[in-house]
Amino acid sequence: MTTFLARTTVMAPVETSSRPGSHPTLTGTTPTRFSAVDCQPTLDTRPPRSALGLRRPSAGASAAEHAFHRATAAPDVSKWLHHVKAAAGCTSPVRLSGEMWTVDRETGVLLSRRHTTDLPDAAIYKPCGNRRATVCLSCAERYRQDAYQILRSFLVGGKGIPVTVAQHPAVFATFTAPSFGTVHTRHVDRHTCIRRNRCDCRPEPCHARRNATVCPHGTVIACYARHDPTDPRLGQPLCPDCYDHHAQVVWNNHARELWRRTTTAVTRAVRARARQLGHPASSVRLSYGNVAEMQRRGVVHFHAVIRLDGHHPDVDELLPPPEGLGVDDLVDALTHAVTVTRFHTGPHPANPNGWPITWGDPSKGFDVRPITVTGTGEVTDSMAAGYLAKYATKATEITGHTSRRLASDTIGLYANPDGTHPERLIDACWTLGNHRDWAGLRRWAHMLGFGGHFLTKSRRHVVTFQLLRDNRIVYRRQAEAPPGTDATEPDTTLVVNFLTFVGAGWHTTGDALLANTAAALARERQAAARDALTDEHPVP
Hints:
The protein is of the alpha+beta class and 540 residues long. The protein has three domains: 2-12 and 25-131 and 471-536, no CATH class; 160-180 and 244-457, no CATH class; 183-238, no CATH class. The chain has helices at residues 63-73, 77-83, 137-156, 245-253, 255-276, 327-340, 362-365, 381-391, 421-432, 439-443, 465-480, 509-536; strands at 2-4, 11-13, 26-28, 94-104, 110-115, 124-126, 170-175, 284-294, 300-312, 315-319, 342-344, 356-358, 366-370, 455-457, 493-504. It holds the Pfam family RepSA. Residues 14-33 are annotated as: Disordered.
């Protein structure tokens, strides 16, 4: 049985011995990740290789003309569509060129070799894999679906997690940053809408103050407007000159450290409660999965699912928490940790005393709710997992700023100390990052100072993106294997790829149109098949 590597391995052959029967020695190089700039189809302006045998239409040709040319001039357009199927819905696929060797796994003997010049377009197409929906909607949707499976298995089990975890106490918590200045907000006292993401309820006045104050810059700190959800003023400071942009980017930069210290404080609190109940402190531990969401004002806050587990040094499995520990104890521990967790940053020439890093007012910015797995209740497992997975595909778009990593030659395009709110935040990152010990602010200026992962989880949670990808590969091999063969039998051969990057994006707008249309039709057929199966076997 021939087995392909789960991920494309970028490798380079080294000089081998001329001794008869010797095998080539392989050395690996670090794979390079590529991402697109926006969500428009990225085109390669270089002419295709001579192996394509195609002549481009005129420079002003439309996407339809390019697609017609591909469909009629290509030897077999269906073969090309099958070739690009893996990356068909991607905005900017990565094209790889090189050789593919089939090697006997036991002896290392080279059985066969094949070059990508024998393939359509003389290249292999790989999806870009970007998680951001504004960059590549197709890859971001795959990332969102995988994130949902990871987070839901955390709550109800499955994929190697015992289903008994559904009985463990779990909560959905939101942690917000403190205030760095007054901003325009939209607050609804009582929601009557069914779908909050399309809320059309009547909001309260933004900042209706009877005795409004005037700041030193002459701005009245009051706003009587009832903002719509799409109002561009939302998240903008009432007085940009009074707003503490420096403190906000520093808080973003230290947010992950604040989260780490908070989880430590929660663990200590629940262990103290376990000792009060007569249990060993080590008999309980915390597990979590969280997502960082960027608010309109340009500061991150965290949504987390947190679960209470038991622990025994001689048992290597997930155990229920000790008797007597429940959701109320977890809520109390979280509330206590949010209140007491705080620290100061090191000194900076702009602030020799450092900046305080703490959570916002617990009475306003902290929210914790129990999670139910019965499908009823205020927060269910599906709701929590879906909410977190949705925000795992977002970044700074809501603030109005999107860019790649900034450098000295591009910072002037986005930073302005007297400009818009995002421009001032980027300028604060660049200005404070000039100090040697604060260089991380410059590195993450395009993220407004936040340099952590947008989705994190406990290390003990064994369900990972890599596990889901590997399972998906095995499933596809089993589906495509000839009848009577077992795709899970021991591997006998290995395909090693010597591939190099040759470009990103589709050759023409017609190629993008054909590939994306084919992918969309395939998704529609799959959705129709799922709907038909659900209608035939309704879920109770």
